[in-house]
Write a structure and sequence with these properties.
130 residues; mainly alpha; Tti2; TTI2 protein
């Protein structure tokens, strides 16, 4: 937050860190993943002019996170899973706003072919966001 738009100077390195942390579960409390989703939201809000060129990588990572959280059968409590799904959904909504609706267009095929209700619900929220 303190860096504001100056975060773009560090965007390439920060993106690698964010992607790395989103890929790995860190136990039942998932504090690291929840924290990195907050970091991603803040980064998108401040560096929004640079998000369209990062869209393919971030979209893929967030969709993979949604799927992983839904399919993981570990000891993670339900409220933590819900918080992860909510955080990823919020990031997708912010990305869509930065990219003039490109996320919605890209998710149309995914939403129609997805049979998992929780993931589908997250994608529906992105599609219905304004």
């Amino acid at each position: 937050s303190r860096l504001g738009i100056l975060i773009v100077r560090h965007l390439k390195r920060l993106e690698r860190v964010i992607l790395g942390y989103l890929e790995v579960s860190d136990g039942p409390e998932e504090k690291t993943r929840l924290g990195i989703l907050e970091t991603l939201q803040c980064t998108i809000e401040h560096a929004w002019p640079r998000m369209p060129c990062r869209l393919p990588v971030l979209l893929k990572a967030l969709l993979r996170l949604l799927w992983d959280v839904h399919t993981e059968r570990g000891p993670t409590p339900e409220p933590v899973r819900a918080a992860l799904l909510h955080g990823a959904t919020q990031c997708l909504i912010l990305l869509d706003r930065c990219c003039q609706g490109q996320v919605k267009v890209l998710l149309e095929g995914v939403h129609s072919s997805c049979e998992e209700n929780r993931v589908r619900e997250c994608l529906r929220k992105v599609q219905e966001s304004s």
